[in-house]
Design a protein that fits this description.
The complex is a heterodimer of chains A (about 110) and B (about 120).
Chain A: E1 4-5, E2 11-14, E3 19-25, E4 32-38, E5 45-51, E6 54-58, E7 61-66, E8 71-76, E9 85-92, E10 102-103, E11 107-112
Chain B: E1 5-7, E2 10-13, E3 19-24, E4 31-37, E5 44-50, E6 53-56, E7 65-68, E8 75-79, E9 88-95, E10 106-107, E11 111-115
Parallel strand pairs in B: 2-11
Antiparallel strand pairs in B: 1-3, 3-8, 4-5, 4-9, 5-6, 7-8, 9-10, 9-11
The chains are: A mainly beta (about 110), B mainly beta (about 120).
Chain lengths: ~110, ~120
């Protein structure tokens, strides 16, 4: 079993819809949870990060972490064509030093105008 | 805006040949990472440097891969000999690791390697 599971199935939604993405994990030591966005032929860029359990909102994006269920989610409200990208979840026990980021496989999201 | 630079952007090489990738991190970033991202997968860490020292190379296939960051600035990742299974995107990232400004990893555009 991989440390981080993310169903890699592509997701197509109409513009304005809510996009819901999620990951599960098995390592109880994970404390920092991140979502990266990766456009085609580009490197990933950090979208949001959350420490421990709870919700975090940034504009149209909301990240949720439920450590008791080992489950994290990303919601994109009022989706735009510019949100079309691959979204990767990532997590680690700490932020620096020998704390390797474990990534999910990524979800390709296509927002149709 | 400062960015992580990588070259080349694309590389096609034949099996058993040697190949090298270069990365120039954001100025002042002490931590540098090399990741491999196979198509349809998330990035996997190959090696992490703190200045010129290796922090983590546990996932680096040392029989064919080597990495160096001699002066603690730019870095080179080498594969010799290349194998078909090495076809992937090789990403470099850097971070400042400051309690004031944060620990975000900034990724470069990657080098797409195809081994034929």
């Amino acid at each position: 079993q991989k440390e981080v599971e993310q169903d890699p199935g592509p997701l197509s939604v109409p513009e304005g819809a809510i996009v819901s993405l999620n990951c599960t994990y098995s390592n109880s030591a994970f404390q920092y949870f991140m979502w990266y966005r990766q456009y085609s032929r580009k490197g990933p860029e950090l979208l949001m990060y959350t420490y421990s359990s709870g919700n975090k909102e940034d504009g149209r994006f909301t990240a949720q972490v439920d450590k008791s269920s080992k489950y994290i989610s990303l919601f994109i409200r009022d989706s735009q064509p510019s949100d079309s990208a691959t979204y990767l979840c990532a997590m680690s026990p700490g932020l620096y030093g020998n704390n390797r980021l474990a990534f999910g496989k990524g979800n390709q999201v296509v927002v149709i105008p | 805006e400062a960015e992580v630079a990588q070259s080349p952007r694309y590389k096609i090489t034949e099996k058993s040949q040697a190949v090298a990738f270069w990365c120039d991190p954001i100025s002042g970033h002490a931590t540098l990472y090399w990741y491999r991202q196979i198509l349809g997968q998330g990035p996997e860490l190959l090696v992490q440097f703190q200045d010129e020292s290796v922090v983590d190379d546990s996932q680096l296939p040392k029989d064919r891969f080597s990495a160096e960051r001699l002066k603690g600035v730019d870095s080179t990742l080498k594969i010799q000999p290349a194998e078909l299974g090495d076809s992937a995107m090789y990403l470099c990232a850097s971070s400042l690791d400051s309690p004031i400004t944060g620990y975000e990893q900034y990724f470069g555009p990657g080098t797409r390697l195809t081994v034929t």
